[in-house]
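Priority: low. Protein: TIR domain-containing protein. Input follows.
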Amino acid sequence: MLYFFLSYARGDEDALVQKFYEDLSAEVRLIAGLSRDERVGFVDRTILLGERWPQRLVEALGSCRSFLALMTPRYFQSRVCGQEWQLFAERTARFESQRRVDTSLLKPLMWIPAQPGRIHPVAQPLQYTSDSLGDLYQRLGVRQLMRLQRHSDDYRTFLFELASQIVTSVEANPLPEQHRPVDLQAVDSAFHPEEATNGVDRGTAAGGDATDPMRVHFVVAASNRDEMRGIRQHVTVYGDDALQWAPYRPPMPEPLIDYAREIAADHSYQSTVVEVDRLPHSAELAARYNQILVLIVDAWMTRLPQRRQALVEHASAALGNRSAATAVLIPSSRDDPETREHWQTLSRACREIFNEFTSDDELYRSNIITHRAFEDELPEVLEVARNRVFSRGSVHRPPDPSTDPSPPRLDGPWARDDDQPGTGGPA
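Result:
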């Protein structure tokens, strides 16, 4: 049983959050009387090699018994965190309505001290301070309790009290699992109600304005494990299809495109994903509807003659449309010795294919050597592309529903209400 789901904004000191998750899990096991190998919590860093994070995340949100939100300023800016909150809040609301109880299963925690006005209105009604958790927690937050050695005893006390609250509330309120399938990308964010679409996909609507979430079309130019065995010795970064390519494995085991979509969602972008054979179609949509096109390229594709030729043809046809805001990102992991050894020739081959884009160092990013660098560069690229959409894009204004679509009839300034067609006024 998952006693808790730990929700946090990726990039807010991931390693420290992971330690907190492990420490809390150990305390929950102890209090619940479980073995040391029993899995009692979920945080997205626990996803196993080769698993696709969105499905695992949704399954955990549907089965966890409580929800811990590590509150930071970035947490309430993250659309993904808002979606996680929304899914769990809906589960508990149904349960509390049926049982007529207040479960306290959604528990906000101060990662750093809460500043006036920085707590989102959706979290303000919830209790995020508690005398039982200690004065130092209320004054310093979880982060400082962990970081400062002189507070180690207070941190252990805080962990024990928090774990006790989790176990007590979970066992007193057996929240049913949610088995219906959920598309996380379609869930509204509890922190961004203004982005609710009421069933209309504004990411593809021609009439969206600057307040709408912009859509990013991610195109993955990579291959599968079997095909790459013909040109590479080390193929552990590949999967059964191009979308499972994980170039930063082992430090980051998840597929790169899942990571890219999460980063985009954290910055309030909607996104779609296709393989490279759909590049022309995605480029057409991006140009037509003032959207962003991001091509993520495995440089080893240039060593596969047929794949290289297809990439050349698609890139020439699709990326030649300068009305689309287009970016090219080429990862090159420093933990991949084989790629580092051949990088000079691989990079040169990529520059030959994307020749007209290589001079644009804002939207052509090559040799991205770590997933942290990718996490830093993708938002920069999206911001540049977004600004170009606003400065160069076409204006699409659909008519108001009350507008008469029939062509106007010009009768002249002398027309009277009783004039008949063809009987104009005086000459």
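Confidence is low (pLDDT under 50) at residues 46-52, 196-211, 414-427. The CA atoms of residues 71 and 110 lie 5 Å apart.
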